[in-house]
Amino acid sequence: MSKGSVSDVDRFPMSIITYHSNHSSISNFFSLQRKEKIVFYSDGMLELEGNRSEIIDKSSFNIINIHDAQSIIFRSARYKNRLAYNILQASAFISVFSMLINVDYFFYFIFGDYKPSNLMLLCFLSPIIFLFSDFKRDLFAEPGAIIIKQDENNEKVIQGDLPDAGLHLFSFIFFLITGIIFSIVSIDSVEFNPLFEDFIATIIGFLILSVFGAILFHIIFPTKEINGIDKNDITSNITHLYFAMMSVKQNNNLNFLLQDEDISKELDEIRESLRQYQDFMQSVVSAEQIFNASNPSMGVLAIGISTEAIMKQACERIGINFKPSAILTLDPLIKQYNREAGIDSRIKSYLEIIKQMRNRAAHDFNINWQEFKTTLDQFCEVVKWYYSVFEESE
Known about the structure:
There is one protein chain. By secondary structure, this protein is an alpha+beta fold. It has helices at 25-30, 82-101, 103-111, 118-125, 127-136, 165-189, 194-220, 238-249, 254-257, 261-274, 278-284, 288-291, 296-317, 330-340, 345-364, 369-391, and strands at residues 13-18, 37-41, 45-48, 62-65, 71-75, 78-79, 141-142, 145-151, 154-159, 225-226, 229-230. Among the domains are: 78-191, no CATH class; 252-391, Four Helix Bundle (Hemerythrin (Met), subunit A) (Up-down Bundle). The protein has 16 helices and 11 strands. The chain has a 4-stranded antiparallel β-sheet with strand order 1-2-3-4, covered by helices on one side. Strand 10 and strand 11 form a beta hairpin. The longest helix is centred in the middle third of the chain and has 27 residues, at 194-220. The two termini are 17 Å apart.
């Protein structure tokens, strides 16, 4: 790994959220515009996720550095009329589910001679409730939001989900399945002009295969990493994003928090012990990113990324080649190396501690000083192990 790669881990993604400018699932599903994902980094920068290139200025992706914000206000998702909203959500779910299990009757009602009862007729009309819920449920509730104020006349608002977003998502999935089943039954049962029937069947078949193909593609070839961190390890909700912002904004530097002289002395001793591995450390990651983290949780995140870089280099040194789509996070790296060359049980336990603490730091931001120091001690042992196995023998 070249020294030029050090810059790739100068900062770490702490939270990621899909920006909601429209809460209609139907509009978003059929929209031609790509969903915008907003990523918050450890240096305080809030940015749009996107591929960087030489023809697009990097600053074009920047939204704001929260260190420049006067205030950050969190507003949780709330009801304007709780009873009306909950009744609408429940009714929408029941309506699409009942339509799904009666889709064949609906087909014969449209194209055949089926005469439904009044209750069944209400069932056929019930998807109107879902459509109203999808487009207008924000009449009864407000989405969660983070309001970032730069000054009195300038603020940025990041919207989250409306309440009970999971229930509405299930309703939307049932709505789509109902539409697909109805289309398939229609093509199979109605006698069209053969050429027209083949044309319609081809279009619907292509759409269905495209949807399943896209899902399969994302499963097999997922875009898993942002600056070296598996996306699955980055929590995606507006509450987590807010606490990540406040964690960074309220803590300017780890050393500022360490008022205790004994603690500062311990840190200096650890930093000094790593200096003998300076050449190796610089080829993997700058140790200063660990010691200059904004708080203990950020320090543990830096340790986690640095350990991943070390284990990846260790795997490459023993001849392990990774596929382009491989998820190179700490857990599979440890398993790969252990399977090929074996890891001393003591070092393996240190790696497991680092992995667990890194996951907690990424999700909860509740690492204290003593836990940070313990994790840092384990990291030093991993550095010494790598150096003794690969560097001393050269």
